[in-house]
Amino acid sequence: MRLSREAAGALRLAILLLCWPMTAEPASPPLPELLSGSRDAEQRLFSPAALGKFFAALERLDERRARLPLRILQIGDSHSANDAFSGRMREALQAHFGAAGRGWLPIGIPFKYFRPRLVDVEETGWRHIAGAEAAHAAPLGIDAGIAQSEQDGASMSLVSSEPEGFDRLAIEILSQPNGGTLTVGVDRHPPMRISTAGPHLRARRVEIPCPPQSRRAVLGLVGKPPVRLLAWTAERRRPGIIYENHGTIGATIGLFGQIDSATLAHELADSRPALIVVAFGTNEGFDDALDLRRYAAMFREHIEMLRHGAPRASILVLGPPDGNRIDKAADSQDPCAWRPPPNLGLVRQAQRHIAAAQGWAFWDWARAMGGECSMHRLFTRDPSWAFADHVHLNRLGYEATADVLFFDLMRAYEDWRRGHARSRAGLRGAGAQGR
Question: N or C: which end of the chain has fewer CB within 10 A?
Answer without folding.
Answer: N
